[in-house]
């Protein structure tokens, strides 16, 4: 028994040493701050809030308009769920979940926000900060892996770890909530969805002085029949631009009813809609 | 950077921003984007607040009675970066505002553009 305990402890210690050495090695390999690209400033996503502009139908369709959709390589189950959302959008009965104010949009929707972004780069971590929020994606680049399965639970933003490949930030995101766990998690206002099994590899780099590009390769064994590649671009705002509070609850005159109707309140705080269901 | 160049960069940024729907935080199903209504009257109140700004405008309807409309715009954050100020629609200002009205005929709409008494415009006004 004692021998067994010592053996277990030894194995555990050895594993810890190996793990620590692994982290140490990773830390030693961290790039210097000066070698990292300059992503400072304020950035605005280009092209509206359709998540996958390359497959949108109709071609100039906007997020939230009736019958606008994209063509992810969905499984039959998720194509059916997406269709149901599209029908609810057309009927005005799929409110944007962020209407409730205070809830993160989640990943990958956090890469698909209106208003502006800040990208804070350090050797050990990058922060993707969405002004429209609360939305912060924390990307750890200090060599750590994702936590063990029993230490993770599905969250809006998931868990992101990555590394620098030259001027490109490559990161891996798992453990997001997804639509099957929480029907309030959508990817854009066409009703686009993924599952909690989504696994995204994002490659971000500056493609010119004023443009950062993020290419996301999304795998999802429940939602997607094959990997789905989506590209988003962010343009640099004029020097001196600022980001501000996005205080969604400050004066939200568009609450939603239990039936999914988005109301419009008058200045007195009472609905001015003629019909409320 | 020379001021003139800054101006061009700012104009490009604005052009990019215009393509973004004004209603960014909630469903826009209540507004009819195929219709535009022009409201001419006086600003009663300007709510320079998140998540959306609101302009309360009073106009006389065809019967001569006062009628108040609620006009919803983008966030003060985005609008301020595109030239709007907290005083752009100061109470008492005479203005014409074009909106995509609510589908159900309620007196509210989504901001499209505005023209002031001095001929200056903001938003889309062709």
Describe it.
The complex is a heterodimer of chains A (277) and B (126). Chain A is an alpha+beta fold. Chain A has helices at residues 2-28, 76-90, and strands at 43-45, 116-122, 125-130, 135-140, 159-165, 168-174, 199-208, 211-219, 228-236. A 9-stranded mixed β-barrel of chain A has the order 1-2-3-4-5-6-7-8-9. The model of chain A is unreliable at 1-26 (pLDDT under 50). The termini of chain B are far apart. Chain B has a 5-stranded mixed beta barrel. Chain B has 2 helices and 6 strands; from the N terminus they run H-E-E-E-H-E-E-E. Chains A and B meet through loops of A and helix 1, strand 3 and helix 2 of B.
Q: Which helices and strands appear, and what pairs or packs with what?
A:
The complex is a heterodimer of chains A (277) and B (126).
Chain A: H1 2-28, E1 43-45, H2 76-90, E2 116-122, E3 125-130, E4 135-140, E5 159-165, E6 168-174, E7 199-208, E8 211-219, E9 228-236
Parallel strand pairs in A: 4-5
Antiparallel strand pairs in A: 1-2, 1-9, 2-3, 3-4, 5-6, 6-7, 7-8, 8-9
Chain B: H1 3-18, E1 37-47, E2 54-60, E3 66-72, H2 76-81, E4 94-101, E5 108-116, E6 121-123
How much is the average pLDDT of chain A? 89
The number of strands of chain B is: 6
Arrangement of strands in the largest sheet of chain B: 1-2-3-5-4
Which regions of chain A are unreliable across 5 or more consecutive residues at pLDDT < 50? 1-26
Biggest interface goes to: A-B, 50 and 42 residues
Query: Biggest sheet of chain A, in brief?
Result: 9 strands, mixed, barrel
- Sheet-strand content of chain B, in percent, reads 35-45%
- The DSSP helix count of chain A reads 2
The chain-level mean pLDDT of chain B equals 85
Tell me the quaternary state: heterodimer
Euclidean distance between termini CA atoms of chain B: 32 Å
Task: Summarize it.
The complex is a heterodimer of chains A (277) and B (126). Chain A is α+β, with helices and mostly antiparallel strands.
């Amino acid at each position: 028994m004692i021998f067994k305990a010592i053996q277990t402890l030894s194995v555990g210690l050895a594993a810890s040493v190996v793990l620590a050495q692994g982290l140490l090695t990773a830390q030693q390999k961290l790039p210097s701050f000066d070698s990292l690209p300059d992503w400072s400033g304020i950035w605005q996503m280009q092209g509206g809030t359709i998540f996958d502009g390359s497959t949108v139908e109709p071609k100039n369709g906007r997020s939230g308009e009736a019958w606008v959709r994209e063509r992810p390589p969905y499984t039959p189950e998720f194509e059916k769920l997406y269709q149901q959302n599209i029908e609810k959008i057309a009927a005005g009965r799929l409110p944007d979940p962020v209407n409730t104010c205070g809830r993160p949009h989640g990943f990958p929707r956090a890469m698909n926000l209106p208003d502006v972004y800040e990208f804070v780069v350090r050797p050990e971590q990058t922060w993707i900060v969405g002004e429209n929020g609360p939305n912060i994606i924390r990307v750890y680049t200090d060599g750590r892996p994702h936590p063990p399965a029993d230490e993770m639970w599905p969250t809006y933003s998931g868990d992101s770890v990555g590394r620098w490949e030259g001027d490109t930030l490559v990161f891996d995101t798992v453990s997001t909530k997804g639509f099957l766990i929480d029907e309030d998690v959508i990817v854009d206002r066409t009703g686009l969805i993924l599952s909690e099994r989504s696994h995204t590899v994002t490659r971000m780099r500056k493609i010119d002085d004023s443009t950062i590009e993020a290419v996301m390769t999304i795998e999802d064994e429940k939602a997607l029949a094959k990997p789905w590649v989506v590209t988003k671009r962010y343009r640099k705002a004029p020097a001196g631009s600022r980001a501000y509070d996005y205080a969604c609850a400050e004066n939200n005159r568009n609450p939603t009813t239990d039936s999914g109707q988005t109301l419009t309140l008058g200045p007195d705080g009472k609905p001015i809609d003629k019909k409320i269901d | 950077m020379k001021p003139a160049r800054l101006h061009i960069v700012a104009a490009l940024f604005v052009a990019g921003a215009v393509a973004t729907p004004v209603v960014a935080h909630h469903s826009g199903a209540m507004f009819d984007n195929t219709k535009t209504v022009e409201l001419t009257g006086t600003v009663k109140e300007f709510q320079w607040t998140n998540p959306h700004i609101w302009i309360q405008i009073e106009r006389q309807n065809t019967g001569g009675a006062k009628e108040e409309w609620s006009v919803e715009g983008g966030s003060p954050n985005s609008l301020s970066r595109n030239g709007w100020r907290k005083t752009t629609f100061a109470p008492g200002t005479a203005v014409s505002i074009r909106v995509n009205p609510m589908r159900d005929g309620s007196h509210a709409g989504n901001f499209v553009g505005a023209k002031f008494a001095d001929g200056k415009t903001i938003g889309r006004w062709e």
